[in-house]
Amino acid sequence: MIRVARLMRVAGLRAAMGRRPLLSATEADVQPEPDVAARHRPVARDAAQQLGREEAWAWLWAWPARGPKGAGRCSRADGGQDSGSCCARYWGPGLRRRRGGLSPPRAAARCGLVMATEQRPFHLVVFGASGFTGQFVTEEVAREQIASEQSSRLPWAVAGRSKEKLQQVLEKAAQKLGRPSLSSEVGVIICDISNPASLDEMAKQAKLVLNCVGPYRFYGEPVVKACIENGTSCIDICGEPQFLELMHAKYHEKAAEKGVYIIGSSGFDSIPADLGVLYTRNQMNGTLTAVESFLTINTGPEGLCIHDGTWKSAIYGFGDKGSLRKLRSVSCLKPVPIVGTKLKRRWPVSYCRELNSYSIPFLGSDISVVKRTQRYLHENLEDSPFPWLFSFGYFSKQGPTQKQMDETSFTMTFFGQGYSHGTCVEKNKPNIRICTQVKGPEAGYVATPIAMVQAAMTFLSDASDLPKGGGVFTPGAAFSRTKLIDRLNKHGIEFSVISSSEV
């Protein structure tokens, strides 16, 4: 059994769902009710052009909005245009009524519908499906679709360089899941990371790309670029801080302009850590000011094994730490203010009384990811940041055997402290403590596919709860207001409160 520890200071659709159905629209055609089709067709085309996309969901009223004196005009600055046209320009946000016409959307109101069309036949595409981790992600997507009701199943595809290898992955998943027809139900897209045109073609066919091709420092950026340029969102399972922070620096504004979401580190790095900290905050009956977390990897008689690709990603990251420091210095971000007392730093090897074990610092991306989430929540949602730190403690080209994966599990334990409501933070010591846990199966190739696929399902079904617009996000920033934790609980990654008490 290997114990790992880490520590760190953590820093309405109602109006849109009006009297009549909402309208879907593409550049080529609209399908509203017959009596309003002619009136809304040019509006829908205008929306598609405004978005620079092949398609657009124009969330429009199915009746004219009455402006001042019933003139049917919008009372905004550009109120000279038909109010329906003004509404069509919003990608996703809902609208609300007020006297004198329609007012701009509430910040929290968002589009909650994702739909495949002829231009984008697939809801999601697993890119790198024939890779070691990609095959498990493919299997998890298939499992999710088989478990769903027929009416709620989503069209999806696998993508990679070799059609033969992709078919083999689908056949293997079909055999394991007892679904002989799986190969004929899933699309196959041939594309290569070295061929930008093929990446564009892949991105154009999907609403969401699950990128499983690493190391991301070498192969990740072309996928991000293709997705943004073609209006497609992307989720990856990167554990490389430099890549994650570089993508945010280079592409956040471009992604926001396109209204797409690039969500990194959505596997074991770093969903349990990032969402575990948020879960701890949400469960505390007061203000959380500090969190210390410990990761325990439990193995069976055959021990622990990690695939060679994961090892390479870590080694390249260590070898280029100077670039990460330079990137952070150029960003010139102001320090996030800390509430409450500081946590004591641990030595490289330290003893944890709570778990009766020694720990060493964790070397993955979790610290970087959680810090970025805390910054986002502080700057955009005005949440109090709090401190946090992380610690850790074989690699083969073949990766772990099935038996090794079956016998391995992880437990992430969070010890939080803070202040009860009404307590003066400046004059008192923390008077509340809480202990929470995140438990799950083998981290790299069982929990990671579960986390990635459930993040994708959440993205597709809970779009109204995502951050406004688009951009490059951490999992905690993207999913803090969604039901992702509930989904993970139902799929074997369990969040729970162990204890909570006043000091």
UniProtKB/TrEMBL annotation:
A GO CC term attached to the entry: mitochondrion
Q: Which InterPro entries does this entry report, sorted A to Z?
A: NAD(P)-bd_dom_sf, Saccharopine_DH-like_oxidrdct, Sacchrp_dh_NADP-bd
A single Pfam family it belongs to is Sacchrp_dh_NADP
Q: Where is the Saccharopine dehydrogenase NADP binding domain?
A: 125-263
- Output the GO biological process annotations, alphabetical, semicolon-separated: glycolipid biosynthetic process
Gene3D superfamilies membership:
NAD(P)-binding Rossmann-like Domain
The UniProt entry, under SUPFAM superfamilies, shows: NAD(P)-binding Rossmann-fold domains
Give the UniProt family note: Belongs to the saccharopine dehydrogenase family.
> This protein is called what?
Saccharopine dehydrogenase-like oxidoreductase
Q: Give the species.
A: Mus spicilegus
The beginning of the lineage is: Eukaryota, Metazoa, Chordata, Craniata, Vertebrata
